[in-house]
Amino acid sequence: MSAPVVLQVAASPVSPALVLRPWCMEHVAALVEVSRDPVLRRWASFVMDNEDDGTRWVQAQQQGWAAGDRFGFAVLEAQPGSVRDQLVGNVVLKEVASGKPAAEVGYWTAAHGRGRGVASRALEALTNWAFDTFEADGLERLKLLHQVDNLASCRVAQKSRYDFDTLLPAAPPSFPRDGHLHIRACERLRSSRLLRTG
Q: Fewest C-beta in 10 Å: which of 42, 78, 135, 172?
């Protein structure tokens, strides 16, 4: 990808407009701050206690963009009267490869962004971008995994039209509890299958 990708999400009745930008070093301080949230720490696969941790995490996101197999976006919310947008979450498309029919999505929301549709709106933008960008390379479906007791994440998946597929066994240490696998198929492929079977 030569040009930086920036995704825009229109305002909703309960939340301002969102901007999804690839992670950069100017996000580190806010990233470390939101990472102190115990709820986020419970579900996240990363722990960030200081700016060095945040810097390493952002560098890993940038390396994913450079390799073309992992695309992480900082989810930012416009702040009236402020020159800087507020970090409210993260969405990521990962395990992307040419000719591979499936990739995975993930997300988290900062404490101050929860309950306002941030995750589902950002995930919808990421989903549309993923299919628009990679369908020609063979992308047919997106996978979304979460632990069974993460009910908020399950609601986001359902709201974003990721259908429940399978109960997955725990795989410690990265996935310590059983999980749900949700799938969303590319709309064009889903429509063509319906036409063939209808």
A: 172
